[in-house]
Amino acid sequence: MKIKIALAGNPNCGKTTMFNEMTGSSQYVGNWPGVTVEKKEGKLKNNKEIEIIDLPGIYSLSPYTLEETITRDYLVKERPDVIINIIDATNIERNLYLTTQLLETGIPVILAVNMIDVINKRGDQINLEVLSNELGCTAVATSAVKGIGLEELISKALDTAKKENTKKVSPMFMSEAYGRLSEEEEEQIISNRYELVQQIVEKAVVKKNFNKIDTTSDKIDKVLTNRWLALPIFFVILWAIYYVSIVSVGDATIGWVENLFALLQEGAHSLFSGLGASAWAMDLIENGIIGSIGAIFIYVPQLMILFFFLSLLEDSGYMARVAFIMDRLFRKFGLSGKSFIPMLIGTGCSIPGIMASRTIENERDRKMTIMLTPFIPCGAKLPVFAMFISLLFADHTWIGPTIYLIAIAAVIFSGIILKKTKLFAGDPAPFVMELPTYKLPRLKGVVIHMWDKAKSFIKKAGTIIFAACAILWLLQNFSFSGYVGPDAIDQSILAQFGNAVKWIFIPLGFGDSWAAPVAAITGLIAKEVVVATFASVGSTVPIVFSQVTGFGFMLFTLFAAPCFAAIGAMKREFGNWKWTFFAIGYQTGLAYVMALLVNLIGGLIFKGTDVVKKVSLDIGLMEQASEGDVVSFNIVYAIFIAIIVIGLIIGIASKIRSSKDYASVSKAVASESVASEEN
Amino acid sequence: MYTLKSIPIGETVKVIRLDGQGALKRKIMDMGITKGIKISVKKIAPLGDPIEITVRGYELSIRKADAEKIIVERC
Predict the structure, then answer these.
(1) Residue A679 binned pLDDT confidence (cut-offs 50, 70, 90)
(2) What does A497-540 look like in DSSP terms, one character per residue?
(3) Strongest mean pLDDT among A441-450, A657-666, B12-21
(4) How far is A193 from chain B (nearest CA, A)?
(5) CATH assignment of the domain containing B25
(6) A299 phi/psi in degrees, rounded to 5
(7) Cα distance between residue A220 and residue A281, in whole Å
(8) Is the minimum CB–CB distance between A667 and chain B shorter than 8 Å?
(9) φ, ψ for residue A405 (rounded to 5)?
(10) Partners of A252 in the beta sheet?
(11) C-beta separation of A463 from A565 below 8 A
(12) What angle do CA B61, B64, B70 make, to 5 degrees?
């Protein structure tokens, strides 16, 4: 007989650890159908007949948030055989509130009183017998981290599941869950539940030292969210992560993977030329297949290092503080306090940036972040800028930093504009967020987290992204009559297509030849391919740009649809194609408008000067352009310093304002107490 | 009567009423802020918003705009 066990509980109650311990390596991570909430399923380690579903971490079964709706619908419609409700014993009151609702579903509930080791260490006591009598369900003391009580928990859950389950969902639960209660009734029900929980806790829990909450955590928090130290510490941590995973180790791994694939290409070359394969077949294998896979896989090690650190932040409890610290700044343009991390990572590569948006709970903030992260110039766009700067703007060092500033301005501007559109409109979501106590992250949990992310990316890369790259290779190397090869790209299907659509780019000033449209399309494989395309096109036909249209083309590359790999990541995080196409459409549309404005306004201002004089790009210099030309100083440091300064200014301003507020409040309090004394 | 927004750091207050409606009110209540419960204000974020409070023995971060909907009295 197949048995379905659902794990339910608050966020931070140790649910994920419990799930990992129970399922071992048999888990599958995906999305709930149609939405971007993570769905985890697995089989019990020693009994493959037993399926375990990890429900989203929730505080309640209210009809208001996506995670809660999913959980509620799952419980009501799928009716698992038993629910294991994991509660954080160190925070029992709020955790039991969810329990009262789970019990109303009529599905048998087993209570896992988790983190019992912490309770014992504190010297507190929880009477499980009282707890289970009062609630009417079995309670087991567990510690998922230490592996205490898991066997007992599972055997009790199975016993309960095997008994016939005749209870029905309580009618009150149904009318509440589907929003059929008046506001007053709802308020009354919630109060009643909490009162019940309070009574039970009073009977079942004995606290040794009532006022003492976790003091180590308090001490850490005093430093990490300190008014003056919080921002500098945050930036030091981010800088360290950025430096290790993007700049030093991460960049080195890109080199390793590139070398590995170069070796594979060489090996394939000698193997197939030995077999006497035709030129096009060899090119297909070397560049079409191995090259395309390589273009995607170079990101994997970097991605894994990055997610290792992000999981560390998440599991330690620091990520919630990041939102706490940055919230005020970012919500002004429709983003969340946590959006800063994806954007920063985006300066290295958009793909991990987009995937890092997972940590943003609010659906709207998350979508906005996914959409705007590709605007931040990633490492692959730098060679394109470098090429144009060295060929057209040799003495203008301000061009590179200006591009970054325009990118940041576009993020802010888009956030403010999009926030007002129908897609992002509606009531502002409440930002009521738990600040969990700091925990020492467990290596095992962090590694599993990291591997999940990498696995899902590799899967995507191996299918959709690979197919898209392979098709593009075909178009680039074949004319309608047959194989032409990379040296005769001007005869390819892609070039003919470029010729057919180049009129679209005429208003932007770079529609004279088919090179620009073709480069815009090959840029979808990876942005640095734009340079290679210009180089191979330029060797057959001259490519002409003026400084104005060159700048326009850089902005077009900056904003237009990202590479296939990033589009794949966007699709995964959005969970559907509708949003993905909307985002790509917005990005490409903005790119077009920006390039158009540059061409029109630049053309007017600089009319008749050298700036609008079209020159043929010198192909010889093209691939020598160094990325160092783009930014004469490290732009990331500059952005860091700028944000610290802005943060300090806001901090000081609010300090002055709030001290005024307090002055008036304490005055009011003083006069009130005087008044009451007089009475 | 004050709103939670105007309470200085370190003070402990008692909830007497919740204004607001729909998702916001429900979320606040789900997190354990119900009539009669004691809340202490712990900290203000470095940029001046949100605030950190302690309720039912755990820490919660709440924006000032939302804290304004929580009517409290001193105790």
Answers:
(1) very low
(2) HHHHHGGGGGGGT--SSSHHHHHHHHTTT-TTHHHHHHHHHHTT
(3) B12-21
(4) 10
(5) 2.30.30.90
(6) -85, -15
(7) 61
(8) no
(9) -65, -40
(10) none
(11) no
(12) 90
Q: Output the six-digit token pair for A626.
A: 């160094």
Residue whose entry in the numeric block shows the structure tokens 């340079």: A531
Q: CB–CB of B38/B75 below 8 Å?
A: yes
Contact between A565 and A294 under an 8 Å Cβ cutoff? The reply is no
CB atoms within 10 A of CB A607: 9
For A187, the closest of B29, B62, B63 (CB atoms) is B29
Cβ pair A213:B23 closer than 8 A: no
Average pLDDT across chain A, whole number:
82
What are the percentages of helix, strand and coil residues in chain A, rounded to 5? 65, 10, 25
Contact A18, A57 (CB under 8 A): no
Chain B residue with Cα closest to A179: B22
Spatial distance between the Cα atoms of A63 and B33, rounded to a whole number of angstroms: 18
Q: pTM here?
A: 0.78
Q: How far is CA A373 from CA A309, A370, A410, in A?
A: 19, 6, 11
Give the rounded distance of the alpha carbon of A402 from its chain centre. 27
Query: B50, A328: Cβ pair inside 8 Å?
Result: yes
Could you say which of B6, B29, B30 has the minimum Cβ distance to residue A661? B6
Domain range for B44: 2-74
Order of strands across the sheet that contains A38-44: A28-31, A38-44, A47-54, A3-9, A82-88, A109-114, A138-141
What confidence tens digit (pLDDT) does each residue in A402-416 have? Answer: 888 888 889 988 988
Asked if A561 contacts A524 with a C-beta cutoff of 8 angstroms, the reply is yes
Cβ neighbours of A426 (radius 10 Å):
9
Helix axis angle, A547-559 to A382-392, nearest 10°: 180
- Provide the number of structural domains found in chain B: 1
| Residues composing chain B | 75
Closest partner residue to B48 (CB to CB) among A213, A228, A651 is A651
- Closest-approach residue (CA) in chain B for A181: B22
pLDDT at A633: 46
Using the structure block, give the residue that is written with the tokens 């650890």: A17
Please state which CATH class domain A3-206 belongs to: alpha beta
B20-39 residues touching A, CB cutoff 8 A? 21-32, 34-35, 37
pLDDT score of A659: 59
Complex ipTM, two decimals?
0.95
CA-CA distance, A613 to A622, in Å (whole number)? 19
Interface of A with B in 171-210 (CB under 8 A): 183, 186-187, 190-191, 194
Q: How far is A576 from chain B (nearest CA, A)?
A: 25
Concatenated DSSP letters of A234-285: HHHHHHHHHIIIIIIHHHHHHHHHHHHHHHHHHHHHHHHHHTT--HHHHHII
Q: Which two tokens stand for residue A332?
A: 């002004």
Q: Report chain A residues whose CB lies below 8 A from the CB of B60.
A: 432-435
Answer yes or no: do A60 and B30 touch at CB < 8 A. yes
